[in-house]
Amino acid sequence: MSSSSSSSSDRISLPVSDPQQKGTEQRLFKGSTMTSRGAYAAVSYMSCAVMLVLFNKAALSSYSFPSANVITLFQMICSCSFLFVLRRWKLISFSSGDADNSTRFVSLQTLIHTSPLALTYLLYMLATMESVRGVNVPMYTTLRRTTVVFTMFVEFILVGQKYSRSVIGSVLLIVFGAFVAGSRDLSFDAYGYSIVFLSNITTAIYLATISRIGKTSGLNSFGLMWCNGILCGPVLLFWTFIRGDLRMTIEFPYLFAPGFLIVLLLSCMLAFLLNYSIFLNTTLNSAVTQTICGNLKDLFTISLGWIFFGGLPFDLVSIRFYIFLL
Fold first, then answer.
1. What is its membrane topology (predicted)?
2. In the Cβ-directed half-sphere of 36, how many Cα atoms lie within 13 Å?
3. Distance of alpha carbon 210 from alpha carbon 226, whole angstroms
């Protein structure tokens, strides 16, 4: 029994989050809580996020694909398929322990325990999609930078996480820089502003829920991704059906074009790696770290998007403002 468990553990090829092992790892900096695995998770998240935005941009703009929701559905289906194959071949485990010999992937009780994660993910998705409609891009970017404040507050409420004065000061500087960057376009819209702040709140709750459930469910990052996909997939499928997105997808003229299929496949693979790195980064580090990494990766996203797709009216003043925002 022990030898089979050992061999199964040796086949786990990707790092998984195990909160019980965090204290045994070497810290990167004196007084810091980030370990080498935590830094790896943060860099991996930012790299995957930047690349995913570029491939999604190619599918939605270069090929004029009509529905972002369907791309999200494809990504979720592929993610669950990857996890199913890897788990079936015993290349990964869904539990945070060393042994996972159960014939079931996860129990019904575990699915119920992780259901708040799926609920907060759906609320986060709906609020984020709606928040883009009522606010112009400069103010949307400005208001979204306040997410880190909401994240710190929600994480304190849910898990009692406290931060040093230097961290709080840095966060306040980010928020101040965001308002400086957006001060040239202050167009007040009560509904638009409220939806963006609602999106910030749901984002903070989603990330804090990942951190909390990741420590209480007995699941690692793969297990959390599996439960999230199994619970959210049917809901997203129903949503795209009633909105008519599936019908538009069937009528899409480039649906079977080789170039579009390659872009869609790479997008799905990157979405799998991105979701994995989000869960890993949030559980190894914190929800606030994840939020700040999200702010930092935007600089690379905009720079590469300008290089590959153009259409951004960059000038020296805009670049200075954006760097100060970060």
1. Multi-pass membrane protein
2. 4
3. 13
- Prediction pTM value: 0.71
Give the integer Cα–Cα distance in Å for 250 and 209.
36
Residue 12 tokens, joined: 């786990």
Given CA atoms 58, 63, 69, 72 in this order, what sign does their dihedral have?
negative
Residues comprising the chain, all counted: 326
State yes or no: pLDDT of 82 exceeds 90. Answer: yes
Whether 114 contacts 207, CB under 8 Å: no
Place of tokens 């325990």: 113
Q: Which of 254, 165, 148, 253 lies closest to 203 in space, CA to CA?
A: 148
How far is residue 299's CA from residue 266's CA, in Å, rounded to a whole number? 22
Angle at which helices 221-243 and 190-216 cross, to 10°: 140
First CA to last CA distance, the chain: 52
Instruction: Say what the pLDDT of residue 114 is.
Output: 92
The residues, ordered by sequence, that sit 6+ positions from 200 with a Cβ below 8 Å of its Cβ are 143, 144, 146, 147, 150
Burial class (CB in 10 A: 0-12, 13-18, 19+), 167: middle
Give the residue extent of every domain in the chain.
Answer: 36-91+107-324
Whole-angstrom distance, CA of residue 58 vs CA of residue 46: 19
* C-alpha dist (Å) from residue 2 to 13, 59, 87, 315: 19, 48, 19, 63
Of the pLDDT bands very low, low, confident and very high (cuts 50, 70, 90), residue 262 is very high
Are 45 and 274 within 8 A, CB to CB?
yes
Ordered alpha helix ranges (H), the chain: 2-10, 36-57, 68-88, 108-131, 137-144, 147-159, 165-182, 190-216, 221-243, 245-250, 258-284, 287-309, 316-325
- 103 phi and psi angles, rounded to 5 deg: -75, -25
- Residue 20 or 200, more confident: 200
